[in-house]
Every structure is written in C-alpha cells, then in structure tokens.
Amino acid sequence: MDESLVFKSFYSEEEAISLLEFLEEKGVHGSIVKYRSVVDKLYGGENYYREYHIKIKGEEFNKANEILDLQISQNLSQIGNDYYLFSFSDDELREIIEKPDEWNNQDIIVTKKILHDRGYTINETEIAEKKSQRIKDLEKPDKEGFLFIFLGYFFALFFGFFGIFFGMLLMKLTKTLPDGRKVFVYEKKTRNHGKNILAIGLIMSALVFLKIFIGII
C-alpha cells in the first residue's frame, strides 16, 4: 500500500510538526497537509477553520501507533489525577476500550491505567479481540437510503452536473480504517446506483452543452 493516508489531525500546526518529527526520528516518514473547509475557501478571510493532517503510508499505521503508545506509557507518570478521564464512570471507560478509534492514543492508555487502579483486570487478548471486531464493524459498507439515491437520479436528469457529483460520491467515497486500510463507504449495490447516476449526469450535461453550442451557431 503506497498511498499516504491521514493518520492524525491537529488544529495546531506546531503540534502536527512536533509529532511528525518524532515519528520520523523513529523511522516513520510522512507529510503534513493543511486542510481548509470548502465553505471557508468560498468566504475567504484569515480566521477560517484549519486542520493539519499528518499523512503516512497506511501500512505504517500500526507501527506508528506502537511508537506513540510506547512513548506515552514511558511518560504516564506525568499525567496528573486532574486529567479529565478520571471523572469518567467505569462503564464509560470500558466503552473507550471497546471503541479505541474514537479516541487518541493517550486517552486509551490512561483509560487502561485508571481501570487497573480501580481494580479491573485488563485482558490484553480480550482488548485485541474487541479491537479486531471493531475494525470488522467499521469495514462493513453502508447502504444509502432511498431518498438520497432518488435525489441523485433527479439531479442527474434535470441538473446534469449535480448528478455527476452525486454519482461520484456514491461510487468513490472511501474511509480509512484504524489499521490503515482504505475501503469503500457504500455497498456494491449503492455504488452501482452511483455509476448509473454518473452516466445519466454525463449524458444530460453533454446534451445541455450541445444545445448551447448549436444555439450559438
């Protein structure tokens, strides 16, 4: 897998640079990409919303996470009891363990420590199994609803260009899994609807341009 994918995101450029430099010292190379929302690009100005994405090869996600986990574990004693996770209930902490993709590396490690200190046995094998199941759940493609698909066909027929957008969205939209793999968001049946919508949108757009061209002549 040669494609670079988003590994971590930050609002601060300094934090992103610091983490990337640390990873590169450990042999994981990547880049930082500035992200700016489409809405902000349209409106312009200096106070727009920014994110800084660290991108590395998907095949190095596990290695990078292991490096971060080791570094955090070595500095765990520096985290005080005022850390916000100490106020979480046991059930809330166990939910973090079951859905690690929704939390950062430090939160996962601190959660394990808190549960251990509260007398809970942390079964790493069980955690690995839950993590594996979580990835399988996230890997499952979505089935887009009738209304969205209907709108796609509608816009393709009457507003060709927007149909092209809908079709490409249904066909090509992907998501990155915690293990660095990239998979399609939508199931095959929905992607096939996307192909149809794209084809109709292209045809209708071509007819509109042809009509305009003939009218000019």
Pick out its properties.
9 helices, 5 strands, alpha+beta, 217 residues
Report on the architecture of this protein:
- This protein has about 220 residues and is α+β, with helices and mostly antiparallel strands.
- The chain folds into 3 domains: about 1-60; about 75-140, no CATH class; about 145-215, no CATH class.
- About 60% of the residues lie in helices and about 15% in strands.
- The protein is built from 9 helices and 5 strands, in the order βαβαβααααααββα.
- It has helices at about 15-25, 40-45, 60-75, 90-100, 105-115, 125-140, 145-160, 160-170, 190-215; strands at about 5-10, 30-35, 50-55, 175, 180-185.
- The chain has a 3-stranded antiparallel beta sheet.
- Helix 4 (about 90-100) crosses helix 5 (about 105-115), helix 7 runs parallel beside helix 9 (about 190-215) and helix 8 (about 160-170) packs antiparallel against helix 9 (about 190-215).
- The radius of gyration is 23 Å and the shape is elongated.
- Residues about 40-45 have low confidence and may be disordered.
How many strands appear in the DSSP assignment? Answer: 5
Quickly give the structural class: alpha+beta
Number of helices: 9
How much strand content do the residues show? 5-15%
What is the subunit organization of this protein? single chain
H/E element sequence: EHEHEHHHHHHEEH
Q: Which regions have little confidence, pLDDT < 50, spanning 5+ residues? A: 38-47
The order of strands across the largest sheet is 1-3-2
Give the overall average pLDDT.
88
What's the number of domains?
Answer: 3
Looking at the structure, what is the overall shape? elongated
Distance between the termini: 51 Å
Radius of gyration: 23 Å
Q: Percent of residues in helical segments?
A: 55-70%
**Major sheet attributes:** 3 strands, antiparallel
